[in-house]
Structures are given as structure tokens and as C-alpha cells.
Amino acid sequence: MDTAKRENDEAARAADSPLVHDFGLLIKAATRLEQRIDTALRKECEISHTMFEVLIRLCRHPDEEISQRRLADDLTLTSSGITRLIDRMEGTGLVRRVPAPGDRRSVLVEPTGQGRTVFLRAAAIHASVVERYFVAPVTPADYGRLTRSLGEIEKALRDA
Amino acid sequence: MDTAKRENDEAARAADSPLVHDFGLLIKAATRLEQRIDTALRKECEISHTMFEVLIRLCRHPDEEISQRRLADDLTLTSSGITRLIDRMEGTGLVRRVPAPGDRRSVLVEPTGQGRTVFLRAAAIHASVVERYFVAPVTPADYGRLTRSLGEIEKALRDA
DNA sequence: GCTCAGCAATTGATTGCTCAGTAATTGAGA
DNA sequence: TCTCAATTACTGAGCAATCAATTGCTGAGC
CATH assignment of B2-159, given 3.40.50.300, 3.40.50.1820, 3.40.600.10, 1.10.10.10? Predict the structure, then answer.
């Protein structure tokens, strides 16, 4: 059948387009990098990369707790995802839930002392992996442009 | 306690480092973009983004089937992950398994006619989302450098 | 030719998320 | 002041991945 053959060719062209290729690169680089960090953190610190992302937010401003809602938005998780993640982190003593002063629906989260200690060890591991596979492979000039572009892309997604 | 206070400050600095921030941007941009594509493809074509990634590989070279092993490596899935993914795709008639001529351990996968048809529709959706949120937000010059950098990063991860 | 270490795919059990639905709380407008 | 739509967290069910263990097959070295 001729139409089948033409569809084959069309599909082959679509599958080979630069757009597909370039975007594939982004996805692959990001997932490989995240996997590498995740396994390193699990081995050395017994936490997942997701937990690390939570600790980053909690430690950033030492005297300002963060609501679960905000964490969910920041990590692109659903509210139920965050509930269970914080459950696990509370269970292993990394964080503590505290009621929100002004709003009784909301729950604030803060790191425990142990949480901060683990975070410091984890941050060192994180930095070394990121340094090696994210920073080192590109020239300093390109690195600046890379992060700027990623910022633009993230902004476009956020605004939409 | 003084040591606790110092640990607080140290953690705050680590959590605010440019490295952490920049890498966070990559992860966030990639996951948001992938989510957007995934929901669009699910709504319009009833396939997941992961299935789309499989179809890309299968349609790229029309007369060369691809082994599950290769697909798993390419998509950064485990072999068991690929087995179940292909199960589902075979179940909905998108692909077909065929025995590998030279090696009876290996299973090759090829797209069905329906698989190619769905792929063509999906590719159009994919292109429009990628165009809008990945290409449009950066200048053409930066886009070239962006993909080059991502290529370098991916290469570094692959080599290691 | 035989053995055996290694690889491909599969399966059972588990993990970590989503979705849909629920309960408590809030704040804006009649 | 009261009502009600929106918002927060949580829960049960389900899904898509992982890990660990198994089976069948292959090829290199003796």
C-alpha cells in the first residue's frame, strides 16, 4: 500500500526532527543527572533526592517555616504526594510539623537538628556530583548562558 | 547552643549556593516541561510521554527493529520497566514484539500501523509544546548554545 | 565439545507517586 | 451575620516504576 509507505516516511522524518532530538537531550541529561544524585545520596546519607530538595527549602531561611502547600508547588508534587513525603521524613526524624499560626488549615514544616546535619553532608555530595557532571562539561561562558536560558524556560512555564 | 547556631548558618549558606539554585532550575524546567507534554499527549492521543519516547525510537529508522535492551538504555529505564511498558503498548496495539533473528534471548519491537498513525498525531502536539516552552523563550543564538551544552553534559554522564 | 560466567527478558514484592473523594477552615459577598 | 465557594491537608485505591530473584540463551576459554 502506498499510503502506508508514505506514512512510514513521514513518521521517520518527524522522529528525526531537530526539535525532537534537542528536547530528548534535555530530558535525558536531567533524568540521568537526577538519578546519579539520588543514588549517591541514598548510599551516603540514606535520603532520596526529593527529600534533599525539601531540606534545601527548609534550611534556606533559618527562621521561617514553610507550608506543605508551598513545598508541593515548588517541587511540582500534588498535595497528597507532599503529605506522604513529609510523613516519611518526619518518621525518620528529619523534619517536624508545626501548626501555622494564622491559618488552621495549613501545616508548617521545619527541619530538626538532625535534618540540618544530614543536609550538610548531603549538600557536599550534591555539590560534587553537580560540579562534575553539570558544571565541568561546559565552558564558563556557556554555563552562564545555560542557566540564563533555563531560567527563561522555567519562567515561561510558570507564567502559563 | 553555639554549635547549633553555626550549623544553621552553614546550612543556610549551602542551601543558597548558586550551584544548588542553578541545578534546581534544570530539574524544575525539565520536569515541568515533561509534565506538560505528558498531560497534553494523554488528553489528545491517549498515550504517555514515555510511550511517545518509545515510538520516536521505533519510527526513526523504518526498517530496523529495536531491542528492548536498547530501549531501556535509551530511556533510562530498567529492563523490567521496559518489559511492562511494552506489555501495555502491545496491549493497546501500538507495537508488536518479534523474536530477534540472531539471538534468542533478545526481543525486538516494531511499531504497528496504528502505532505510526498515533505517533504522527502525537509528534504534532509534542512539537507545538516544545516550540512554545523550550524554543520560544530563548534567543536563537542561546538556543544553539543551550543544546550544545546539554549535549556535552549528556556525553559526560554517558562516558562515566 | 563442555562448562560456566554473563546477558536478556520476565515475574513477585515493594515504593512513591497520582487521582478522586473527604473533612476542617477561611474569607468574600448577600 | 451568615452562607458558600475556595483552599489545606489527609486517605483509599490504583498505577508505573524499582529491586531481587529466576529462566533461557550465548559465547569465551579450557
Answer: 1.10.10.10
In whole angstroms, C25 C1' to A105 CA is 6
* Cα R_g (chain A), whole angstroms: 21
Q: Where are the domains of chain B?
A: 2-159
| Chain A contact set for B113 (CB, 8 A) | 4, 7
What distance, in Å, lies between the first and last C-alpha atoms of chain B?
43
Rounded to an integer, what distance in angstroms lies between the CA atom of residue B160 and that of residue A35?
A: 13
Contact A48, A38 (CB under 8 A): yes
Q: Please state whether beta strands A107-111 and B66-67 pair in parallel, antiparallel, or not at all (unpaired).
A: unpaired
Residue window 64-93, chain B: list those with CB within 8 Å of chain A: 76
Q: Enumerate the nucleotides of strand D whose atoms come under 7 Å of any protein CB.
A: 7-12, 16-21, 24-27
| A42, pLDDT greater than 90 | yes
B121 touches chain A (CB under 8 A): no
Chain B residues within 8 A of A34 when measuring between CB atoms = 27
Reply yes or no on whether the pLDDT at B1 is more than 70. no
Q: How confident is the model at residue B3 (pLDDT cuts 50, 70, 90)?
A: confident
Q: How confident is the model at residue B120 (pLDDT cuts 50, 70, 90)?
A: very high
- What CATH number labels A2-135? 1.10.10.10
